[in-house]
What does this fold into?
Amino acid sequence: MKGLWKYMSPFAPDQSGASAVLYDLGGIIVICDAGGCAGNVCGFDEPRWFTQRSAIFSAGLRDMDAVFGRDEQLVDKLVSAADNLHGEAEFAAIIGTPVPAVIGTDYMALKRLAHKKSHLAVITVDTDGMELYDAGAAKAYMAVFKKFALEKDKAADLAAEYGILPDDIELIIGSTPLDVPKEGYEAGNGSSGLKSGRGGLKPGGFGTGLVYIKLSALSRKNIVTAPSGLPAARYLKERFGTPYECRYPYIDSGDSVLKDKIASRFFKGRKVLVIHQLVAANEVKKLIEEGTDGDCDVTSATWFSRSKELVPDECESPVLLKEEDDLEELIREEGFDVIIADPVMKKALREFDGEFIDFMHFAVSGHSD
Amino acid sequence: MSDKLSYNITAGELAACEKIPRELETHANMVYSSPATLSFNSPGATGFGVKRAGLVVPGSVMLLVAPGCCGRNTNLMEEMPEYEDRFFYLLMDETDLVTGRHLTKIPKAVKEVRDHLESLGKPPSCVMICITCVDALLGTDMERVCKKASDDAGLPVRPCYMYALTREGRKPPMVYVRESIYSMLQPAKKEPATVNLLGYFSPLNDDSEIYDLLKSAGVKKINEISRCADFDEYLTMSGANFNLVLDAQARLAAQDMEKRLNMPYIEMRRMYQADRVENQYMSLAGATGAVFDKTKLAFFKERALDAIREFKEVCPGAAVAVGEMGNADAFELSLALLRYGIDVPVIYGTVTAEEMPFIRHIAEASPKTRIYANLHPSMIWHGYSDGDKAGQIGSDINLTIGKDAAYHHPGASHVLWSEEVQPFGFAGITKLFVQMKEAVS
It folds into this structure.
């Protein structure tokens, strides 16, 4: 039945994706909810919550707030929260949930009102809890780059202030905890991740992440590690002419059965299904094909965005999964020897008798190892 | 960093306030869900939120009908063996939101869930439909939808309202869900000398004196939903003479059962002041005409007082931080500790009008006790700034009670006091002080 999930719990929602992007940029992040959505972000979808401080707040909406659309009260709370941060917040971000989606919140008006009263730069992300994390992350990336990316001359001044050499800058877009292993989001400086060979900023500081966004005009090349980063990479190419490439450089990180199997040519002559976000799935597909000199049949599939740019060959179009039934049907019809996916999917594959290789995806299972 | 302190107020200052300061009112501020608060503010796997509570009915399964975000953290529960094959999701999309068509899908989904479980050899006893803020705003008549689903599937189907928007209203989610879980009980012949204990989703400690005392007063059968082995046993709760409400959040359920099942109820509450516990048993005896075994009552009270004395001997200089993430009312427990002569420099709690009587007594006993609002935005600085860490609150605390207090004072000894099996009465006091003694030893 369409919409009915019997084996797996829902994947990370769009507001979690948006929060992950904004997490270490040093703003006040207001999740426009009654408490549960913010609790879900902080208690489940954001592994950094337990080790790295971020000013994520729930708007604490109550039924009458929603019924009467008390935006003024919401903004007053935001101003009060900003006061409690003693000027440390560089901006405010308001992230949508199902509640504003139902009551039809006017984000543009809310943004203007919040800016007027708080004197902070304000962005809004119109997530609704019904889309998946990558949609929310993509919206958040676009919002911050549009709002904060400086023109080249001003970016050069700022880089000089921080002692960063422009030639060293490569921007990594997409490396949030929802998409990449710990080594990935910790190696990049911040969710957007500015990679700087010399004199770069230290990662993880409260608010330092926004600097990388401001300097994006200077990037030599942007590396897109997840489909959620693609719209922003396209935008930066159009605005600054920065080239980009889609690459997932994290397969080698840590001890991985997958890495070892690729190295040992385990996949030779086998029919393989790889399920992940598409940049990662394509990377694995490529490595397996290279490792077996093409003597294998690899299909990549995803529950998430399937941009045309991530489909290099029309004949081998990745499979877009929407429902649990789609997965069961695919497995039944294709007769794969090996499935490489997050282990939470095993529950939906009770009849699969081939080999299952774990390929963690936090946005799916809430685990990265 | 000196100005970056979390908002706090002394008990003396708070008691003198004409009304509760705005900083302490949860609805008046943004909510900061620090790791210290997650279990009670947005319960996932720890503690009982609506989803876990709804599944306390034996053999039940849950169908969450909501946007995906509402079911996301259920993953944590699904990893526990007792919840395997018990959660299902009917995910809403934007069209559902606009048209409400998701409601028409529910009966079909319930049947599919039933068939699926039957194919696994695990037929459900009932299906709990969990709905969320979206349907609260849409004004969904879930009773009608559940009746249709029940008629179609041939098994009980009941709603669980996970309406976070109403958490400070008359019927907050944790009150509503207590009503839901008893709503399948139907009028039945009364069994003499039988009582239901309402309020918790897990049983009381086996050694709670309430069992002995009730039995000494002639009660033959004591029912708790969490001890029911199967759905049939759950249904026998309909035959009880009366309900004993041990948590005020079950009052609405008791009122509903009084109306539907002609089952009266009496309220008690969990307390840590030994004299109050004794008074409460006396009141219960008065209200029911029961005669408790006074020797037993005295024995249990003395055992609790012994545990307190032993702790004080082992740790004469105890300075305790009390939190709200545990099996106690933070303010009542703090007052109890102060009355036993134990210092409580800090309390983490949610101040409401109902708590003010305790706070006034705390102010009399210890006016300088500092009260922090766990959810206030300024708690972002708690434990980070020099002021908080070094002098203002941290250094003198050598014992914490509650998971939140433990988080805020990592250097102290800890009694998390958040086991699922519930402490109650003198046995609860005894157990707490034994654990406190063990922690500091």
Observations:
- The longest helix of chain B spans residues 294-314.
